[in-house]
Amino acid sequence: MSSKEDQLVAANDGDPVDYLDVMRGAYTNKKTGEIHNPLIRDFIDLVESQKQEYLASQHLSDDGSSASTNLSRVRVNEMVEEKAVPKKKGRLVGLARRASSYPSSSQTPYVDPMIMEELHKKDDQIVALESQNATILAQMAQQDAPIAEHKAEVAKAKRINLDIMEKMKRLFPAEF
Questions:
Q1: What is the pTM of this model?
Q2: 58 and 27: one domain?
């Protein structure tokens, strides 16, 4: 389906196409000009009628002309994704994949607001944890200094003890 979409974009002088056009182009029989799959045909008819209803419901603009006769590509894509087309394994039937999951270079990626909110929360948590980690590392560095001093004192005491033992062995060789 993505290659079909790329073909339609190329035929459209590089302008992006909506999912409805992709479905129509992919499922239309080139010889008869008809869509043989009844599920896809009914779905395309449903979205087309809803597009017409939406356009008819638009009010006249300030200059008295009617509203635009075309919906934006993003709005049509939303209509395709939210309508009653069956989904199998998370993919939209007729598009072969969830359209917003793998945007091609000609599409703007779909951004789910709930996912974005969760990402912002996770980003905030990461910042808080990094700050906490820096605080802990600073505390550990402060604790490492006395430990290093203590280790140096212990090493010095061991040297002194070894020196004393050597002197004792020399003074009292029979005892050792």
A1: 0.41
A2: yes
